[in-house]
Amino acid sequence: MVERPLPAVRHLKDKEARQVVKEFVEHYPSSEKALRAAKDFEELTVEGQSVLFVDGRPLILRTPTGLLPSLKFEELINALPKIVVDMGAVAHVANGAHIMRPGVREIGGDFAKGQLVRVLDEKFGKTLALGITEMDSESMRFMSKGKVVANAHYVGDELWKSFTALKGH
């Protein structure tokens, strides 16, 4: 197997960091305390997207659709509404598949269409992915088939691989 060289990490200027924090906090107000106290912001670009390291932790993703928390921003994502999937869906979700209603075992919390949710496996309760809801929670509860959540970031995607490869960073 050919190893790819790790991309370079770039330090953000104070003005850039303040702009990222401002934009991120607008979407995820509960992140304000953790981000406002941060001192060091670095960016790792991977295939047109990037991971923002905040005081050494990979917390924010910059994607073509906007800023998202990474799966490592536990204090933020653990407060999100959840979708629990059966174990048969785990491999598919971890390969980037969208979440289909037949694989959903539990819908935790209330949410609107277009809201970020975390996707967990039913056996261990581990977060597998973050996704954007295709409908509100009430509508989802009455569905029996179809796509209900678009997979936005999952364990094993390119961004995940990039920041887990840099663990010693």
What keyword list fits this structure?
single chain, 169 residues, Nuclear Transport Factor 2, Chain: A, Archaeosine Trna-guanine Transglycosylase, Chain: A, domain 4, 2 domains, six-stranded mixed sheet, five-stranded antiparallel sheet, 6 helices, 11 strands, 26% helix, 34% strand
Question: What's a concise summary of this model?
Answer:
The protein has 169 residues and is an alpha+beta fold. It has helices at 14-27, 32-36, 74-77, 87-93, 137-142, 158-165; strands spanning 9-11, 41-46, 49-54, 57-63, 66-69, 82-85, 99-100, 104-108, 116-121, 127-133, 147-154. The chain has two domains: 9-72, Nuclear Transport Factor 2, Chain: A; 76-154, Roll (Archaeosine Trna-guanine Transglycosylase, Chain: A, domain 4), CATH 2.30.130.
Q: Please, could you describe this protein's structure?
A:
It is a single chain. The radius of gyration is 16 Å and the shape is globular. A hairpin with a 2-residue loop joins strand 4 and strand 5 (66-69). It starts with 8 loop residues before the first strand and ends with a helix. The mean pLDDT is 91. The protein folds into two domains: 9-72, Nuclear Transport Factor 2, Chain: A (Roll), CATH 3.10.450; 76-154, Archaeosine Trna-guanine Transglycosylase, Chain: A, domain 4. The strands form two sheets. A six-stranded mixed β-sheet has the order 7-11-10-9-6-8. Strands 1-2-3-4-5 form a five-stranded antiparallel β-sheet, sandwiched between helices. The chain contains six helices and eleven strands. With 169 residues, it is α+β, with helices and mostly antiparallel strands.
